[in-house]
Amino acid sequence: MKKLTFILLLGFITSHFALAQFNQGNAYLSGMTRANLGFQFQQSYSDLEFGLHTEAGYFIQNRWSVGGSILGDFCISLSGLESEVDFLIGPNTRYYLARAEGPQMYLFGFAGYGFEQLASEGYTFHHALGIMAGPGINFFVTERLAIDARATYFFKHLWNPEFGGSHNVHRILFEAGVSIFFSEFRFDIFRSSE
Fold first, then answer.
1. Which of 59, 127, 165, 177 gives 20 to 30 Å between its CA and that of 107?
2. Which CATH topology does 2-185 take?
């Protein structure tokens, strides 16, 4: 009950500063969290992953936003092999499907570069390239504050330039979080000359 009260209070406070529209010139800020059970086929072990995903976007056209994301993950092996910390940063995009009212569905895409650090064998370091894509949905608590839920396919390619070798990771991620939408957030570079 305290969490619901906090979300409603946050929505009321931010309602004076933002409008939840998907029109050109608007922006959003989102924070997501996830926990998932994954399996890496090439290494035959399963793991439990916890992650945080922060993103922001600017609507360059009605219903289409581009922005940036930061992903951070902590992964514990259930096979006792190793634990790892991941960090990725890169651009993202959302395209909202046309709906007059109710929950708003969107398609999400992300591509990023970062690193993975394994806690076994003296903290082995890998470069990482990640790609995410999938559908999401916003459930609006107020006109400006939304509960965000998303299911994405996540592909990650890892390589170690020092020791050589590489491998791929495939996961299905289920994320949940909160998004705040701001209206009339304009940059001069996006304004047309009149």
1. 127
2. Porin (2.40.160)
